[in-house]
Amino acid sequence: MDETSPLVSPLQDSIDYNYCQSDATSPRTPGSVVRVSAGSPGRSRERQPLLDRDRGNSPRDPHRNEFPDDPEFREIVRKAEQAIEEEIFPERICQGSSGSYFVKDSQGKVIGVFKPKTEEPYGQLNPKWTKWLQKLCCPCCFGRDCLVLNQGYLSEAGASLVDQKLELNIVPRTKVVYLASDTFNYNAIDRVKSRGKRLALEKVPKVGQRFHRIGLPPKVGSFQLFVEGYKDADYWLRRFEAEPLQENTNRQLQLQFVRETGGPRLHNQEHRCIGGNDNWLLKYDCPMDMEGKRDTDWVVVKEPIIRLAAIDNGLAFPIKHPDSWRAYPFYWVWLSQAKVPFSQEIRDLVLPKLADPNFIKDLEEDLYELFKKDPGFDRGQFHKQIAVMRGQILNLSQALKESKTPLHLVQMPPVIVETARAPQRANSESYTQSFQSRKPFFTWW
């Protein structure tokens, strides 16, 4: 049974989670996180899909990709759509346990990675046979009870959102996008309907013009910008062991590493746990200035540059900490970089944001606006995801304050911070934290 206490850090005092709450008579702002009381008649309907109220009344195409706040991303998606119209289709990625695709532009250059919702590891149209075989042979071990199934595309976009809010700049920009392509995995009915509509448009144009859409239906999924020049972290880490880096370059690597450990730890990214070091990429540029070599034999060597990219964030935002069969330890804890305390630079960057209640509240509302796009969105599940994230924020804040190492961070007790039931006339929200005492059957410490 979990131990429950007022909101305090498992080790020392922590950040304050008392947020100002608007008056009960004031109108609710769009996207605000609302807690449904136990006696509310709508609580029994929480598992029903929540759709936008104006979806049926909006004259715009709901599958249109519009990003007014990010024109650069919108332009890249437009290039992808134009390439598909020119029959330069996305190419399926062989690696992984789900259907993911390299998206190209009109010149055939890879510009993004698209992961449809229906082709996720536990999706009905997953083209990879590994998960189908697991479901067929081991149904009792199928899925993960700590994750919301078939919402990996939201986790990908959510991880990018958290990264941008914290200004870590390690997760390539990722957003929810609608795309249709012949190379995607569709069922037979959709393909027959698409061919029938095309045939009707060719043979009987008057009838074909009445169709709302000609072709395959678009798929919703995550679209992540492609990063060039990056390789698996294992490749560079093995090379750095044989050829040690200079002090300044090694400091760059350490700073990038702690950025990578902070973000995934915040939203409990499990791909960092089970995927080894191939779920984060490194780019190592060691430029040499050869201009002065015409008149002299001297070569000017510039400072090497190291950049890190955290990809594969589809297993983020769990509804609870793993407590069933096995734990999911972060693979990077065995690296030497995980034993170095958090630097003052990363503390100055992240800690002021995590200590600001308004920042945390804005982050929760932004995640709510993102996650509610899913037709199967469940507000109760979302509150559980946020409760786990608050606990991770609590532990990360404490680790930064005490200059702990990333290894010490993952060894801290798992915490869940939930919204407490407060009187209706209360001026602020109160929170309670619970320490998870139940451990997985197989653990690593």
UniProtKB/TrEMBL annotation:
A single BP term in Gene Ontology: Golgi organization
Location(s), subcellular: Cell projection, Dendrite; Cytoplasmic vesicle; Endosome; Golgi apparatus, trans-Golgi network membrane
Keywords of the record: ATP-binding, Cell membrane, Cell projection, Cytoplasmic vesicle, Endosome, Golgi apparatus, Kinase, Lipid metabolism, Lipoprotein, Membrane, Mitochondrion, Nucleotide-binding, Palmitate, Phosphoprotein, Synapse, Synaptosome, Transferase
PROSITE patterns noted in UniProt: PI3_4_KINASE_3
Region (Disordered): 1-71
Domain PI3K/PI4K catalytic: 87-419
Enzyme Commission number, as recorded: 2.7.1.67
One GO cellular component term: perikaryon
GO molecular function term, any single one: ATP binding
Catalytic activity of the protein: a 1,2-diacyl-sn-glycero-3-phospho-(1D-myo-inositol) + ATP = a 1,2-diacyl-sn-glycero-3-phospho-(1D-myo-inositol 4-phosphate) + ADP + H(+)
EC main group: transferase
Entry-linked InterPro entries: Lsb6/PI4K2, PI3/4_kinase_cat_dom
Lipid bilayer topology: Lipid-anchor; Peripheral membrane protein
Record field: compositional bias (Polar residues): 19-29
Superkingdom of the organism of origin: Eukaryota
This protein's record includes keyword Mitochondrion: yes
Record has Lipoprotein as a keyword: yes
Main location: other
Skewed-composition ranges (Basic and acidic residues): 43-71
Family: Belongs to the PI3/PI4-kinase family. Type II PI4K subfamily.
Record protein name field: Phosphatidylinositol 4-kinase type 2
